């Protein structure tokens, strides 16, 4: 059995790209449905607390499996052949097969993005447990990035498992020693929590959501405590650039979660190069 897996090692990159297309298709479902699931659960809970009756629509099952995917306009079910990543979008010419309503280009874009990122992870780490963990890490970061960009939610359903999976991933030091992963999770959470607490004392305002604390804790669990200062600096730099672009383009603020996710993924892929650059800068600056 092990020999059969080893024979597939030369094909790890194309296999990961193909797998990324399939995962990207599923992530489209996660990105759309998880926020709706959260809002529905909040509504039902609030109505129960207030003694109000939830509507039939609010009580109807809505999760990652049910209801089946369908066109939001004509409600025609999506057939299996219409759900093939990228290919179905091209065959349908980007339109619903029944009512010809345009399908968002973001669906194939997320599928292609996930495939590309999976291929890079496989290229960087080869046929290894780090690659396997990296694919899961990447998929969850893609989902969190788009959910936060759309809704400014960072769901506990994703951030909390990401913390625990990161700790389990490093149980035997797959990426960093376990003590570094545990400290990374702790200080990742506390760093932003303390910053937000001090900001609230000074201004009376809440400057950041709790989901950002948990996401940085998750990144610390995966990448270790030593990388946190670099990660926060990179995230802030990316956030400033993206916030300026979004504000100029659409007059909107940009959530911080995507910046954390992007910086964390870059460090996961180029950890040695990032640390070498940090050491060079520290030596050059005299620190």
TrEMBL record:
Taxonomic source organism: Neisseria zalophi
Lipid bilayer topology: Multi-pass membrane protein
Entries under PANTHER family matching the protein: PREPILIN LEADER PEPTIDASE_N-METHYLTRANSFERASE-RELATED (PTHR30487:SF0), TYPE 4 PREPILIN-LIKE PROTEINS LEADER PEPTIDE-PROCESSING ENZYME (PTHR30487)
One GO term (biological process): signal peptide processing
Biological function: Plays an essential role in type IV pili and type II pseudopili formation by proteolytically removing the leader sequence from substrate proteins and subsequently monomethylating the alpha-amino group of the newly exposed N-terminal phenylalanine.
Chain segments annotated as transmembrane: 12-32, 129-147, 159-180, 186-203, 215-248, 260-282
Protein name, as recorded: Prepilin leader peptidase/N-methyltransferase
Keywords: Cell inner membrane, Cell membrane, Hydrolase, Membrane, Methyltransferase, Multifunctional enzyme, Protease, Transferase, Transmembrane, Transmembrane helix
